[in-house]
Each structure stands twice: as structure tokens, then as C-alpha cells.
Task: structure prediction
Amino acid sequence: MSTPFLSVQDLTVDFHTEDGVVHAVDGLSLGVEKGTTLGVVGESGSGKSVTALAVLGLHNPETAKLSGEILLDGRELIGAPRSVMERIRGAKAAMIFQDPLTSLSPYHTIGKQIGEVFRRHTGASRAAARDRAVEMLTRVGIPQPKLRVDDYPHQFSGGMRQRAMIAMALVCDPDLLIADEPTTALDVTVQAQILDLLRDLQEQTGTAIILITHDLGVVANTAHEVLVMYAGRAVERGTVREVLGEPHHPYTWGLLASMPRLGAPVDVPLRPVRGAPPSLINVPSGCPFHPRCDYPALAGPGLCRAERPELSPHRGHGDACHLTLARKQEIVGTLVQKREIVR
Amino acid sequence: MLRFLTRRTLGAVITLVIISAVTFFLFFAVPADPARLACGKVCPPELLAQARHNLGLDQPLFAQFTAWLAGIFAGRDYGGLGHCPAPCLGYSFVNQAPVFETILDRLPVTVSLTIGAAVVFLTFGVATGIVAALNQGRPLDKIVSVSSLIGFSLQIYFVGTLALYFLVYQNQILARPQYRPFTEDPLAWAAGLVLPWVVLSIIFTANYTRMTRSTMVEQLGEDYVRTARAKGMTGRSVTLRFALRGTLTTVVTIFGVDLGALIGGAIITETTFGLQGLGRLSINAVTDSDLPVLMATVLVAAGAIIVFNIIVDALYAFIDPRVRLS
Amino acid sequence: MKETGPMEETAPERDTAQAGTGSAAGRAAEPLLELSGLEKHFPITSGLVFKRQAGRVHAVDGIDLTVHAGETLGLVGESGCGKSTTGRLVARLLEPTGGSIRYGGRDITHASRRELRPIRAEIQMIFQDPYSSLNPRHTVGGIIRGPMEINGIDPPGGRDRRVRELLEIVGLNPEHYNRFPHEFSGGQRQRIGVARALALDPRLIVADEPVSALDVSIQAQVVNLLQRLQRELGIAFLFIAHDLAVVRHFSQRVAVMYLGKIVEIADRDSLYERPRHPYTHALLSAVPEVGLESAPGTGPRERIRLAGDVPSPIAPPSGCRFRTRCWKAQEKCAAEEPPLVRLEGNREGHLTACHFPEAPTVHGRDVVLDPALA
Result:
């Protein structure tokens, strides 16, 4: 079994703050192959964005302590010199962010911002970079790209800005694209366009995509594989079909049952996860989800509180929960029967 | 852009008229008699009356003000006391000269003082501010913060007097501060002003350091700066092309206001170093109850602030495309 | 597509007299809230000294709506459609520039502060941001007591007891009376906001995106809470949200807004299963769904991808405002604004503003207008 194109092993990210050490990511492993999309799902504070920034080495080394292994195409990125990271960012691995208005510089034209990435990594001339920017704007569906290339971000609408962000990220044909909540700030009709665009572009370029989102619906429509994160840890992993069709972790059940959906029966009330996500400074012992979980009693007395369940190391569908597989299947069966989870 | 400038100039003129009116009428609320000053120490009543008449002081206040306004465009005759050609800002009986000439005479001193100091404090202030911001939280940042706090709390008359005493009178390292026109001898011009420049800069540098640092720190945390790093821009170009750009907007605003204020008269600096600039002129005008001169210095000060504000607003359009004017 | 053929030719049956009463037609005649021709234009001024009006934002541009006692009307649409402005107009936080608002049979469109006093207590608002809508310097108890103090209401047993009762109703610990908002999580803060809204026993709550700032698991807690309140206390809701799934879950009737206009309004099932307006179709098909399999016999859900973004409300398109993004737009759409009427074959109370309506199904076809996806 070869290493995936991007392979993260046992990643930990700690932030040292005045209140104590924030364990933002704790022992996370993931892998993404070229041409596939990994959806990373979690609520705020689950560590999904921190992971994304860690892959590109964008954390402030003074406050963030990283350990573990991040291999991009076989090359270790943790502890790589700054100049190496600067050459990888934007060229081999690129990123798009949630809010395209604040993420684009208000002082430079769209064309300049796209072109400068190209110039930085290929040494192209100004004219060539501009042509390339126009070409990229065309590809992401900006009307009249030759005119709009000289516009400033504030002259673009929200959806067009995110398209420009995508154009900027893809200008050097990166092998890995990290999209951090790329559609959260957008309207639903524009979100659909952007997600389709990402999928289309991936088919053309074979880029590996990590799609970070809080919306299981976005993952279901766009990703091949899913990683569910909770309190800085991966709690479930598998293909979209596996995780959404046969979820194994109580937190995944909670997410699915608490989401209102167009296809779900309206007479069944939502079943929220009780309580609130834990503090990342004092993460609960054992399984971090146990204080909010409905089933610790079924796993064995005190087990969930005492022992941290590990995500099964082999690839494929896996989860970090002490319940036996038979028990999980039984519970999912009941939830589906009660129509709290709709497949 | 042209429309913007005309609109702003019109606004400026209105503001200046209002300011001069307020100054004018305030002056007459103060008990002081310019005629007595014009007349001299020993002044018989009939001569005083004559002086009153010549100065127009026997007219109603409003008529006096309009006469003063008209003088700016048409010039004015002061009976037997002399003629004041347009633009006439009045005739000073204390200086025995038209006010406009006095202003023209003093302006270069203040402008020289301001420009020299501005170059020093802008360069050093912004540079140390950037360095501090880039080393946020490290010892260097703390040193800069503490020293700028000290610089900020120093007073010109205190530092100025110390510097004069040790550098000029005690050890004669520097020449006594004085003004020599730049056109006559640039070297002597610079040598005569170097001490006031440095002393005036100390306070301003501290202020600009603090301001640049805090704005830059804010800018470095902006999403688009993160984007720039995420696309592989080198540390230096992230700093210079992205973070600095936003910082400049703030710096330019404050700089415009400061320049205007300084042109209006660096009163304390000029007094400390005995320079005959606009600041000194205005202080003397107050003590001598010299209304025409006082009016003129107030107008110049206000005019400078307004002009620099217009320049700043116009510059914005170049710095920040979001406020680009139609 | 075949089904739509005959539909297009049918002249829409006029039914404006029944506008918006919907499934509530059988109920008591007097609606709790009645908006007619409601309009809010924000002026855009330019010039420093002499302000002159350079244009107007047509935020809400003549809408008719009714809300009956105890029912929930969902108001959906994308940013800039005027749904939040509508909510603020109803709560009289904004002054309407046209049309009228009737509450309980009284015209309150331009009612003065004093005239509004008794009504203010009955119409309450819940806001989106649980962080900025609570005063950080007041205790939770103080925040919830506030409305009672302002309105001089003394509930039996005293205000403090009432506050504790309210805390319990919204699922917070009454012991937390003296805590400050920052000591609570986002979901808990939204509960505090709900408790404050309940303090005066309102009959109508305008909930403006009450759950969109919350995480999914917390969102469900608040939705369930609001649902329980509606059921147990019989409060009517104007539920404003951009999330179609949440609105579907919470509302009996739903209105879809686009650029200051209502383009379609219907009872929930009609709107979600048998929508007629192309924009409603586009909105529904854009919702990313988790469901892996479609219901038997229906085929996959349709996929509609519009091009571009919503036009500016400063200069909305002539005629039908959706026409610039619509795949069925024809000359008539630019020339003539479609009236909001009941189309043939639709249930009572299902009104659509479209010259060329779609077939009443959400299944099985693709319309892709986005050039980048073609």
C-alpha cells in the first residue's frame, strides 16, 4: 500500500495562549489521492481549519506547535525551511478561503493578484501573466474576462470574487487544493455554481481537493471521501456512501439527525446533539464526545470516560468509538426506522 | 477628480470665511484698543480719534469685517498711515508693515522647519514601526514600544533647552539654531535648522512609530495577507506589497493633519529655538493685541489644515481603489 | 419539460382577493398581521454639504403578506432580497416608505411611539447574532427583566420569578440568573434572546435568521425550542431564513422573496413539492442534499444552475425581476411585471408571480446556465 499523495500522520497542533494550551488538533491522520476530494466535516472548533492551515505551514510558528508528519508527494512539510514552503504554496498546493471579499487584497486588481502567483512560481513576464489571468478568469466563468481582469475585488459580486479566488488558486495547476468553507459566505444558488465548478475543474486537472465544511450536504454533493472531526480529532472516516449511508460514530448520527433536510419527513422532529462542544483547553478524558453521547452505557462501564478510542489505522471505513460494530449497526437500524436519520 | 477639487475648494473658502469672522468678532470681545497701539505711548484724544477713523474703528463691527474682507481682493488705504496693496490682510501698526508681507517673510521659516522635521519623523517613525510590527512580541518590539512611549512623553521645551545647553552653548558641537534662506545657502540652511528638526522629530517619531506598528500588526492579521502567504509570496513582498499598503492609508491621514498643524505654527519649537516663524508671529500678535496679524496667522493655520486635508482625500483615491472618486 | 407546455398557455386565474390567506382561509377572518403593498426604499445620497438623492435601494418593493394567529410563515430568499428588512418593518424598527401594516385589525404603519406601546409588547424579535444582540454588561436576569421594566409589567409572583420561569422554559438553568452573556455558548445565548422575547407574552415573534449563526447540532436545539414554544404558547412566527431546509421544517406557509418582491407563496407542501416559479425551482435544486437515494418513483431531483449573482436592488430589472437569470425569460417578462396570482391547478393560497411558470415537480431535469459549467 503506497502513501497517498497527501498523507497526514498523527498531526497535533497546540496553541499556547494565556488561558492555557489549546489542543486544536490532536493525533489526526488523513490521506488524499490525486483527482479525489476529501470532505472534512465538523463544527466550529473541531480543528478542521487549523488542519488546513497546518498543511500549508501558515500558522505562526511562535504560537503554534506542530508535530506529526505531513507528506506532500512524499516530501515532509513539517519543519521544512521557509523558502521551500514558499515555493510549494500556490504552486503545488493552493488554498481558497471562506470570505472572498476580505481574502482578496482591496488594493490590487484581480488580474494582478492572479498574475503575480503565476509570475512568482514560473518567472513569466508581466504580459504572459496577464494573459494567463484572463485565461483563468475565462475558465472559472467570469463574463468579459478581458475587461474584468483590471477590476478591483470590490467591483465583483460575491460569487465572482470566489471564482476569482479559485482562478488564483489554480493558476499554477497545483496538485492539491485546500478549500476552507469556500461557499459558506455565499448564497445557495451561487454555492451550487461554485461547488459544481470545483468538481468540473477537478475533472479537468486531476487536482486533489480537501474540502472543509460544516455542511454535510456540501460534502455529499462534492466529495469522494469524508472525514468527520470532533474536538480536534477524526471520529469517522470513509467514502461518502459509507459514512452517510452507514454512519458508525454517535457524533455522525447526531449531525445527521440534527440537520433539517428537504428530503426528510417533516413530521419527525430534529434530534439535536445535547450540550455544547467542549473547550479545547480542557478536552474531556477518554472519548471527547462521551459527555454528549447517548450510548456510553452500551460500551461498557466507564470505558468511554477512561479510554480514548482510536480510529482504526487501516484505510477504508473506520471510526473512533468503543461500541461494537454489531451494536452500531443495531443503533443505526433503529434510528433509520424512527426516521431520525434519512439515507 | 476635477469636480471633487472644485467642490472641496468651495467648501474650504466657506470654512475660511467663517473662521475669520469668528476670530474677528472674538477679538473685539476682548478689551484692547488697536487705535491706542497705533497712536503711540503719548496720545492726545484728537489723535486717538484720528487713528480710530483711519483704522475704520469708528465704523460698525460688521462694516469693519466686510472692509477687511474686501481688502484681501482690492487692497486698502489706511488714511495717512499708508497703503496696503492686494492681497491685503490688514496693516500692522506694531510691525509698521502690511501683514501679508510679514507673513511672506515668516512663512519660509516655518515651512523649512516643518519639511525637514517631517522627512525625519516620517522616515524613522514608519521604519521603526514596521520593524516592531514584524517582530511583534519579541524583545526588539518591546524595546521600540518602551522607547516610543518615552519619546512620546517628552516635551519640546525640555528636550530643546537641554539640547541647546549641551550641544550648542556648553560643547559647541552644533551651530546656534537660526534661519538662513535655502536659496542663499542650502548648507547653512540645513546646519541652522538641524537641531530644531531633530528635537521636533523626537516627539513625532514616537507617535508615528506607535501608529505604524499598531496598524501594521492589524494589517498582518488581515485575510488577504494570509492569502498572499498562501499563494507563496515571499515574506518581504507580503510585507511590502500587501501589509504596508493598508498601513499607508492610516499614516497618510495622520500625516496630512500633522503637516497642516505644523505649518500653522510650531509655536513651542520656534520659541525654544528663537526662530522667527509663523508660530512666534502669532504668539506676539496675541500679546500685542495686533488684530490684523492675528487674523492672518489664524487664517494661514486654518488654510494649511484644510489644504492638506484635501490633498489627503485626493491621495486616498490613489492609495485605496475602493474610495476612488468618479 | 413536456408537462409545462400547456401550462404556459393557460391564462393565470386571478385570485388576488384571497391573496396570501392560504390554508388559513377557513380560520377566523381577521388575520393577526396583514401587510399590503409594503414598501421600503432606502435613499442613497451623495454630496457633502448639499445632499442630493443619487438613487434608491428598493429593499422591499410592494409586498402583500398575512400571518394568522398561531401560525408560522417562513420567508426565504437570498441576500439582498429584502426579507430582513420586511422583518424589521413588521417590528416597526424601520419606517415603511409605502403600503400598510395592520396588526390585529389596527393600522400601525405610521403609528407613533406612544400608539405602538401596547403593540410593542405583542410583537417581539429574535436576531441572528447571539453575540451582539445581548448587552454584555447586563446579567442574564437583567436582560430578560428589561422588557418587563420598560413596559411596567408586573407578573404575578414578581419579575424575578417570571425570569426564572422563562429561563426554565428556554432550557437554561434558572440558577444562571446573575451570569453575564459571555459566560454562555452561542446556542445558550440564542436561548437568552428567546427568553427575552417571551418576557412580554408576545403573540407574534419575528425571528430573523435565528439559527444561521449556530453550529448544526446547536441549531437543531434552538429550532426544536422555537417549535415547542409555538405549539405550547400559540405564538405566531414570521420566520426569516436563507436556509430552505430549516424553513421547511419550521413553517406552515412559506413565501419566497427575490429583489424586494414576493415571487411565490404557498403552503409548505405545495411550495416544496409543487413549486411553479423558476426561481423557487432554482433555489430548491441548489440546496445540497445529503440523501443518497431519491424517493421511489420520482427520479433524481432536478439540477438548475443559474448564471451570475443577484442584480443590484438599486436598479432592479424591469418587469419580472428574475428575468435576467431566468431560462424562460421572453420579451413579455421585461415589459410586464407578472402579478402574484393563483395559477390553474394550484391549491388555494398558492400564488405565483410568473408569466411562464414551471411544471409542478422538483424532479428530473437539468438546466445549466452557468457558462463555466457548460
